[in-house]
Design goal:
The chain is of the alpha/beta class and 448 residues long. The protein folds into 2 domains: 14-301, Carbamate kinase; 304-447, Gcn5-related N-acetyltransferase (GNAT) (Aminopeptidase, 3-Layer(aba) Sandwich). The protein is built from 14 helices and 24 strands. It has helices spanning 14-28, 47-59, 71-80, 99-119, 154-162, 185-195, 234-243, 250-264, 282-288, 313-326, 334-340, 383-397, 411-415, 429-433, and strands at 32-38, 63-69, 87-88, 91-92, 124-126, 130-134, 137-138, 141-142, 146-152, 166-168, 172-174, 180-183, 198-205, 222-223, 229-233, 271-276, 295-298, 303-307, 344-349, 352-361, 366-374, 402-407, 420-422, 442-447. Bound molecules: coenzyme A. Coenzyme A is lined by residues 323, 328-329, 370, 372-374, 379-385, 405, 407, 409-410, 412-413.
Length: 448
């Protein structure tokens, strides 16, 4: 199937917007989101709002794990204590005299987050679930009290999620003798995404997403009008990293590298979102609408076509509604759809309905194609073609000799699949009787 974006710039309002939210609610309940939240947001006036939105997600049944980034708070504490540290390969080297300040910063930030959660009636819990060890000396550099992850007790984190807690995982790890290390919180985030069954990872900071400017980009890249990438698949991320070594700012490079890391493992997360925490509602918009605001990196486009079930009926009616009003499609009642539901097929991406179509058997040799509709947000991305090719193939597999379709405004599109113009006289007997002369649809035929 062709490539298509997994979110776009359509904006659904009113009832259709509410339906869209319901659809997402069903999809995300009991699923786990990991949120890495930068401490530079803590003092922003919109931070309490962001925390409230997180609590709303939790209240509707989404499991939430929070990993605070603490870089800003560490910087403040170290500079007040007149201690300077250096970074190698994006990692802070932690001398012994800096470690107590790192611990203090980690606790302080985690506590602030927990108090926001408590204020919203949610139970945050922080704990020591990271087994760490010293990085030691690597390529001649002694990392001192900077550690790497040996193991995360993700079993404990899972249990806490089941008990409705929001685990807040701070970045201090302990070795088997109780010695503590400063562990990079992005590494904790990625590792957790590999260990737990996580469906979305959010990096929430001050960046709107990854800006396109000055970067050498692969073909077919999707961008926002604001100048950031809207969607990237893993091959595109790989390309950006390889071709922009010298121009990619460190923060953006880290986002891309972390996204690769979090998605790559067999159990890795499917979607990584980089969103701006100082923009009101950005988290909710990213979760509940096809119009995300930040950059999304996705592992796979899980696109497939499946037979519809009665549960899909409201979605199919919604999908067809706009086209019925425009006169492209005939109105079908809910009862009619329920009765014929096994003739309908759904083009689905990540459990989201992108389009539908039907193949009704008329007699032993003839089938009717109908109800072909593609969500306007995903038009011209090959979804319609995917459905048609599937239905034509299905007709052949069922041993049909001929397909027909009645259409008012889409004949040119059907010609692409080899249909030719016929007349109502070409229709099978029973269908001829039901031909609506007033609608005056064109009859198109395809020999299989
Ligand atoms: C027609 C429809 C199914 C196409 O779905 P889609 O996923 O956008 O189609 P594809 O991506 O496979 O093909 C897109 C191409 O079809 C063309 N196309 C779309 N609607 C067309 C029409 N009514 N007539 C002719 N060509 C059309 C587009 O211009 C596009 O061309 P391009 O690739 O050169 O840009 C979709 O537009 C739709 O749902 N239309 C309303 C419902 C309808 O008319 N259904 C058929 C009645 S049974």
């Amino acid at each position: 199937m062709n490539d298509f974006p997994l979110k776009n710039n359509s904006f659904e309002t009113g009832v259709s917007g509410i339906r869209e939210v319901f659809n997402y609610l069903k999809r995300y309940r009991k699923k786990t989101f990991v949120l890495k939240i930068e401490d530079s947001l803590l003092l922003n006036p919109l931070f309490p709002m962001l925390m409230k939105d997180i609590i709303h997600l939790h209240d509707i049944g989404i499991n939430i794990v929070i990993i605070p980034g603490i870089r800003t708070t560490i910087e403040e504490k170290l500079s007040r204590a007149n201690i300077s540290t250096r970074f190698v390969n994006g990692m802070r080297i932690t001398p012994a005299e800096a470690l107590p300040f790192v611990k203090l910063a980690a606790m302080e930030v985690a506590e602030t987050i927990i108090s926001h959660l408590a204020a919203g009636g949610a139970n945050g819990i922080m704990g020591n679930w990271i087994r760490a060890r010293a990085i030691g000396v690597s390529q001649g550099v002694d990392y001192e009290f900077t550690g790497c992850i040996e193991k995360i007790r993700s079993d404990i984190v899972s249990q806490l999620l089941e008990q409705n807690f929001i685990p807040v995982i701070y970045n201090i790890g302990f070795n088997s003798t109780g010695k503590s290390y400063n562990v990079n919180s992005s590494h904790i985030t990625c590792r957790l995404c590999q260990d737990l069954d996580v469906i979305k990872l959010f990096f929430i900071g001050r960046d709107e997403g990854i800006p396109v400017a000055n970067l050498q980009c692969p073909e077919g890249i999707e961008t926002h009008p604001s100048g950031i990438f809207s969607n990237l698949d893993l091959a595109q991320v790989d390309y950006l990293l390889k071709h922009n070594r010298d121009v990619l700012e460190l923060d953006y490079r880290e986002y891309l590298e972390n996204a690769l890391e979090a998605t790559r493992a067999q159990n890795g997360v499917n979607r990584v979102h980089i969103i701006c925490g100082t923009r009101e509602g950005s988290l909710l918009q990213e979760v509940f609408s096809s119009m995300g605001l930040g950059t999304m990196i996705y592992r796979n486009k899980y696109a497939h076509i499946r037979v519809a079930t009665c549960e899909d009926v409201p979605e199919i009616l919604h999908l067809m509604d706009g086209y019925v009003k425009k006169g492209n499609l005939v109105l079908r009642s809910e009862a009619e759809l329920n009765e014929q539901i096994t003739d309908y097929y759904i083009y689905e991406v990540d459990m989201s309905v992108y389009g539908c179509g039907a193949l009704y058997r008329q007699d032993d040799e003839t089938g009717e194609i109908g109800a072909i509709s593609v969500n306007p947000s995903y038009k011209s991305k090959g979804v319609g073609r995917g459905i048609m090719e599937f239905l034509i193939d299905l007709g052949r597999k069922r041993g049909l000799k001929r397909l027909f379709v009645l259409t008012t405004q889409t004949s040119d599109w059907f010609y692409n699949f080899g249909f030719i113009q016929g007349t109502p006289a070409d229709l099978p007997q029973g269908r001829k009787a039901r031909y609506n002369n007033e609608r005056n649809s064109r009859v198109l035929l395809l020999d299989l």
